[in-house]
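Subject: for your reference before the review

Hello V.,

The reviewers asked for a structural picture of the protein, and I figured it would be easier to keep everything in one thread rather than splitting it across files. Below is the amino acid sequence we used in the manuscript, unchanged from the supplementary table.
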Amino acid sequence: MALNIAANDLAAITGGYERTWDARANRCLVIDRHAGTETLAVPFVRPGRLDEAVA
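And here is what came back from the structure prediction:
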């Protein structure tokens, strides 16, 4: 699970230099290397309780 990490740092850790990732509030990237999947998730937030401002 990647939280609050810059794209170049995440690529260096995982070797996934083709990945496009922008860290955002209330978002994480779940990386399953065994299944070869990546899922954008909203951790630690109950449904309907997202505090991110919508522009």
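For the response letter, the relevant points are probably these. The chain has one helix and two strands. The radius of gyration is 12 Å.

Happy to draft the paragraph if you're swamped.

O.
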